Amino acid sequence: MSTTAIIMMVVALVVVWGGLILAIVALRSRPERTEFPPGGEDDHREDQAVIEHDT
Amino acid sequence: MSAQHQAPPREQFTGQVGFILSAIGSAVGLGNIWRFPGVAYENGGGAFLVPYLIALLTAGIPILFLDYALGHRFRGGAPQAFRRVKGWLETLGWFQVMICIVIAIYYAAVVAWAASFFVYSFGLDWGDDPEAFFFGEHLQLADVGGADPWLTFDFVGAVLIPLVLVWLVVIAVLAAGVVKGVQRANVIFIPLLLIAFGALVVRALFLDGAADGLNALFTPQWDALADPDVWIAAYGQVFFSLSVAFGIMITYSSYRKRRSNMTGPGLVVAFSNSGFEMLAGLGVFSALGFLALESGTTVDELGIAGVGLAFVTFPAIVSEMPAGALFGALFFGSLVMAGFTSLVSILQVVSAALQEKFALSRTTAVLWLGGVLGAVSVLGFSTTTGLILLDTVDYWVNNMGIVLSAILMCVLVVWVYRKAPELRYHLNAVSTAQIGAWWYACVGAIVPVMLVVMLVQTVMIRIDEPYGDYDETYLLYAGWGTVALLVVGALVFWAFRWRGPREYRAWPPYPPVEDPAVRKEASR
């Protein structure tokens, strides 16, 4: 392999796989937010239409 | 009121890992293995890295986030999510569902071929002439040179039986649900795919001639950077490879709980997809270098992309190398796993859309779509003209269907209904990695402009010369007809009455409310 080809290969792998490792490390160090806006508890009330009573 | 008339709660991925693996399973497909290496080689080699990375950052990741935001905020498959943006946009959702329907029908056939070749590789059944074996013996491709039929219903048993099996397995996975089916399949197959493909790449790197192959792939042609076509190819590769803009990522992100990180996992998914492409580049070009050395040719004289690479060139490589059977099994096993997890995600889009629009149970929706699409798939693609139909439909649905869908999505959501600030607020409110105002420029300008250029160019080329030297009347029906089918299908599905839940309040509210106490005060 020529020197330029080797350099390009190393650069490509370092940038892309390095980016992947950085993304994983960042996510592992802070997987979720600690504070959210109020609401959004997953009890599925927001998925449903308003309940209608037939009285 | 009666509890049993309410729909069951929305399904949910059990956590971040399940979601990330499923999204990777969707993004990593056949295109990563058989498209990326060839595209990189033909568009500047090592220099392709520059436009590729720029395209990833300015188009791939931003449009991935757009899909995530739509699905997560509006909690639905494509039609329901778009309907909650604006009523009539449900049509755009169904257009994306139609794309998935068409892709699934032929994608299943390719997965079935790979499964057959997985079995063939143990006995090196293709012998000395893989090309004749694939087209002649396996597909029994009808000779379409002269007055021969363009469409036949002569079934080929060796294609039909694996294809039926693929459909049965995918139906079983979808029927088992998001957690026990989709997520479980990905949690098993994605690590297995990485191990199998990783082993294949390591083996390929130690073949004679591997260095020549890598030299061909990575030697930069810097003048390619001045060529607009190279930039378009880079945007196209990133765009097609990430499985964005046809409903998959909208659907998957709608199965995450509301309080869950979106952008952080999104970055992991995007870089995993590109990382796998790099791995495929190493493996494929090492192997191509080996074959070129063995057969005394150069890499560019071999089939380096698509069906030709997978089913003609690779079998030839397997035959030439010591202990080739194992290498072949790893390659075709990887193709099956990569393709199958993508097929599952494509069909989940259809399943979610049917469940939501027609208020169907999951089992009913899956049996309907599996029965109808499976039957069409088997009828159209296990015949002696299956390959030609596949090639044509694939070209049109990708280069026109998906590109058009993405343009419409950006223009309508960002420009016409001005939802970008709301979607950005949503992502930032639930995510760890915050996105800045640069995102507006990407999804509002860079992505649509690049895609419009691509679309115009493709249409002009296809008007000038028929695709693949096929018959022009055939292309009119099979190619342009496919695009018409996408539009008509979308309108037909849209015309039915919406039977699912209608009222919906997106969380968190936008414009944002600072504090519950403040909200109480304000509402008095």
UniProtKB/TrEMBL annotation, chain A:
TM ranges are: 6-27
**Could you tell me which residues belong to the region Disordered?**
32-55
Q: Which InterPro entries match?
A: MaAIMP_sms
Query: Which UniProt keywords are given for this protein, alphabetically ordered?
Result: Membrane, Transmembrane, Transmembrane helix
User: Which protein is depicted?
Assistant: Methionine/alanine importer small subunit
Q: Name one Pfam family in it.
A: MaAIMP_sms
Entry keyword Transmembrane helix: yes
From TrEMBL, chain B:
Compartment(s) where it occurs, according to its Swiss-Prot or TrEMBL record:
Membrane
Q: Topologically, how does it sit relative to the membrane?
A: Multi-pass membrane protein
Which Pfam families does the record match to this protein?
SNF (PF00209)
InterPro entries associated with the record: Na/ntran_symport (IPR000175), SNS_sf (IPR037272)
Keyword annotations for this protein, in alphabetical order, are:
Membrane, Transmembrane, Transmembrane helix, Transport
Q: Which residues form a coiled coil?
A: none
Q: Where are the transmembrane segments?
A: 12-34, 46-70, 91-120, 155-179, 186-206, 232-255, 267-293, 325-354, 366-390, 396-417, 438-463, 475-496
Name of the featured protein: Sodium-dependent transporter
